[in-house]
Model the fold of this input.
Amino acid sequence: MKIALYARVSTEEQTLEQQTSVMIEYCQRERCEYELFSEKISGAKESRTELDRMMQRIRSREFNAVMVTKLDRLGRSLAHLIQLIEEFNNQGVEFLCLSPDINTKTANGRFFMQIIGAVAELERELGRGHLNRAELAILRQTVEVIVRNREAGGEPWGLTEAHLRAMDRVL
Done:
């Protein structure tokens, strides 16, 4: 398997080494081929030189997987993150995030992808006027709770009764 490793920090004072060493260690332990794409740039920017270069190579089918240490290293906005993960999925590229532990080959990883896909579909519906912004906000909050619980080592679907009632109102 050949994995594209993506590492990003926002400022010149920050170091990429902590992210890159963990990902390289994973690849060496699993005996995977890898290529590193790293940059120092704000995550708020959708267009980033190394991210764009990696995406071109993914579209050329040069990688089987993409790995990041944390979701916010790939994209700061939910919309951009969803767009990237959907593209990985459409290209048949596995997505690996080390924290929270997301691997689209596992049941939990596929569950996470289904949640991401559902939010993307709902955003498209919102664009067509089918959902209001409050309903979309409830769904986004639900996804954030799932991700936070997963990052804290809990079950990714650790929703409260309030979240479930809110989702029932929307759905």
